[in-house]
Structure formats: structure tokens, C-alpha cells
Design goal:
It is built from three helices and seven strands, in the order E-E-H-H-E-E-E-E-H-E. With 101 residues, the chain is of the alpha+beta class. It starts with a strand and ends in a 5-residue tail after the last strand. Belongs to the URM1 family.
């Protein structure tokens, strides 16, 4: 299990009970390391209450294009995306860059 802080910014908080910051204890799958991919699965399965909102956050088994994903203030693409192994105290931020108008 890994303890991380997760932030939903740029309007994403709406699908997470209008709460921007969450402290999560993410369990490992069968004793494996907890990765960002594990975290994303956890968010989709446990935190998104309305099934219709899942498409706002996830597409093709990954974070939807238009959502900037940062791991400790670094673009997740530089950190290995879903393969990044989380450590206690990591901060993962999801920021929507798509705004209605």
C-alpha cells in the first residue's frame, strides 16, 4: 500500500465530489509495486461514482487527452507514464486543459 496525494484541477473536481485534493492509500495488486496505472485503476473503480463521468477522465485505458498529468510537478511522460512506481508522499495531479465556454 502506498500513501499519495491526488489533485483534480481545472474542473475535474466536479466528478470527484467537488473535492480537489484527496489523500489516498492505494493498495497493491497481489503484492506488486503500486504504479500510476494502479492509481488510475483505483480512481476509476473506487472514486468516480457516476459511471457516465468515467469518459471525462479515462479514454482507451489511460488518462484522457487534454488532461495534464503531473507526478511531483513533473510531466508524467518524463516519468514513464503508467509504469511510474509510486512512493509514499508522491503527489499526482490531473489538470483538465479543456474548458467549456
Amino acid at each position: 500500500m502506498v500513501s499519495v496525494k491526488v489533485e483534480f484541477l481545472g474542473g475535474l473536481d466536479v466528478i470527484f465530489g467537488k473535492q480537489r485534493t484527496h489523500k489516498l492509500n492505494v493498495p497493491s495488486n497481489s503484492g506488486e509495486e503500486v504504479t500510476v496505472g494502479t492509481l488510475i485503476d483505483y480512481i476509476v473503480e473506487k472514486m468516480i461514482k457516476n459511471a457516465g463521468d468515467k469518459c471525462v477522465f479515462i479514454e482507451n485505458d489511460s488518462v484522457r487527452p487534454g488532461i495534464l498529468t503531473l507526478i511531483n510537478d513533473t510531466d508524467w511522460e518524463l516519468e514513464g507514464e503508467k509504469e511510474y512506481v509510486l512512493e509514499d508522499g508522491d503527489i499526482v495531479s490531473f489538470t483538465s486543459t479543456l474548458h467549456g465556454g
